[in-house]
Design a protein that fits this description.
The chain is an alpha/beta fold. The protein contains three helices and four strands; from the N terminus they run αβαβββα.
């Protein structure tokens, strides 16, 4: 796992949180490889899923290109351009876990509140 990059608003899960979330996601997968898990901006979850089950079908969507080390399990993802995904990955996930950086959360909440008015 690479170190946290505070300039990207990255803060990794604690061991307890990562294990708990990974266990729940693996239960949802129920051993199925039909639908991979989309880990959006949660590299700690991705790492724990793969550590707990190396065959877990997971795809990491992350802005930080240091995660290219995960090979084909890594997809560059920019919250400013969410529509820019490879066509083969669109509509291919039934399990999606998203943990956007803090500043993005603030922006998303503001946009949702604005849209509701």
């Amino acid at each position: 796992m690479v170190s946290e990059e505070w300039r990207l608003s990255q803060f990794w899960y604690s061991v307890e949180t990562a294990k708990t979330v990974a266990k729940e996601v693996l239960k949802l997968c129920n051993g199925s490889v039909i639908s991979p898990v989309a880990c959006i901006a949660c590299p700690t979850l991705y790492a724990y899923l793969k550590n707990m089950d190396p065959n877990a079908p997971a795809q990491l969507f992350e802005y930080d290109k240091r995660f290219e080390q995960y090979g084909c399990d890594y997809t560059f993802y920019d919250y400013n351009h969410p529509e820019e995904l490879p066509l083969e990955l669109k509509h291919s996930f039934k399990i999606v876990v998203a943990d956007p950086p803090y500043l993005v959360r603030v922006k998303l909440i503001a946009e949702i509140l604005f849209a509701e008015k």
